[in-house]
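The step that takes the researchers longest sounds almost clerical: writing a folded protein down as plain text. The outcome of that step, for a single protein, is printed below.
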Amino acid sequence: MITLESDQQMKELQNNESVIFLFSADWCPDCRVIEPFLPELEEKYTAWEFVYVDRDQFIHICAENDVFGIPSFLAFKDGEEVGRFVSKDRKTKEQIEEFIIKLDQ
């Protein structure tokens, strides 16, 4: 998983990739819960580029995209938002996989 480094990088990824942005933070306990199985999901769903977005570093991007809870996921394909799994609730591996599978339908 790559880590977002700039606003420009986010725009480039949104417009040129099939990308899933994971909004997270170091201090978030629910974010730590999903970390162990994220590499497995990346390996399984290779059509998608996974990008870690630090909520504290990019709070303005969170606000612009109505991401007010973490962990949350936004998916873009060819510059269009194609899915969002945004809430403050803890997410299970199964819920995240279900979200990814729906993106390809």
Q: What stands out?
A: DSSP finds five helices and five strands in the chain. The chain has a mean pLDDT of 94.
